[in-house]
What we know:
There is one protein chain. This protein is α+β, with helices and mostly antiparallel strands. The chain folds into two domains: 185 residues, no CATH class; 159 residues, no CATH class. It is 49% helix and 21% strand. It contains twelve helices and 14 strands. Strands 1, 3, 4, 5, 6, 7, 8, 9, 11 and 12 form a ten-stranded mixed sheet that branches. A two-stranded antiparallel ribbon has the order 2-10. β13 and β14 form a beta hairpin. The longest helix has 45 residues.
Amino acid sequence: MRIPLIYSFRNLWTRRVTTLLTMIGVGLVVFVFVASLMLSDGLRRTLVSTGSDDNVIAIRRSSQTEVQSGISRDQANILRSMPEVETKADGTPVVTNDVVVLISLPKRVSAAPANVVIRGVSSLALEMRPQVKLVEGRAWHTGTQEVIIGKSIQQRFEGCDVGGTMRFGSANWTIAGVFDAGNTGFDSEVWGDADIIMPAFRRDGVFSSVTMHLRHGADFDALKTKLDADPRLTLDFFREKEYYANQSRTLALFISILGTLVSIVFSFGAMIGAMITMYAAVANRTTEVGTLRALGFRRRSVLSAFLLEAILLSVLGGLLGIAASSLMQFVRVSTTNWDTFSELAFRFTLSPTIVVQGLIFAVVMGVLGGFLPAVRASRMAIVEALRTA
């Protein structure tokens, strides 16, 4: 015979206080585990969603990032002339030649300095990146020392409001507007006219990257093969989404590994708590176990019932931890992107995959914490168990 499932639920309800305390312990561990995965996934999604599959970005070969790259005007003009690049009705190639530099700005709360990306762009940059939308003020005027800033810059750094000024490149720059890039990496950047920003940083004639919008996204492989074979172009080419995904890997991997290690250490405490709870349950229910065995329930059924209690306890704790971690989606954090050494703001992101991983982690804790007490309960001799009544 098999012990009914309701038996395990009823026993957990009978020991409400110990059940709740153990659930909280498991929930805290699952919270840390899930939050670290959410942090890693949020960073990855922020950078991946920054790019587009229809845009191709070119940087100097082996540069890794735009900050380290340098592309001459002659090379940029060659890229603009490619037939795979989309053109406007007047024949203008849909291309932006960007200049990317880092400056230091003080944060609003702590006044501590942090690196911020200054991106000098061409006039078509906003058109090529439709996720970037002005929400306050206006765009910069071509040929002037005006910039627009991402909403994360406005929220996190001092003096970053429309009409204010920023000083970099030995000049003062007027903040003409604020843009919302849809929680992508561009939200943490400052944009202005590349032809004005370039000489301010003594980058005359040298761009950091060239981004081209393809007529057809499927043309990427053919275009890359052609450009790689051109001896005039010592450049690397990526789909824009792939480029930004590569930038997220180092930091996302570090966060994921660190969070997992911390969760594993904490999980030992949670498993010990679950084990103590189940051992106490076995000790208090010796007569009950003996009665079950006397009624004809086999050792395997008793083991399964007690193990199921431990698993249910952990699953309930896991659901509590996941529910608590879901609130982190309303939190926006910032950190330094190790690939670009610039400030990057992003949100915690909870996905169905992370929910499943959190529940699996909770079940594993339940199995490891409840197995030995369940074995002890199943091995009780009927006579000895009833004798303690």
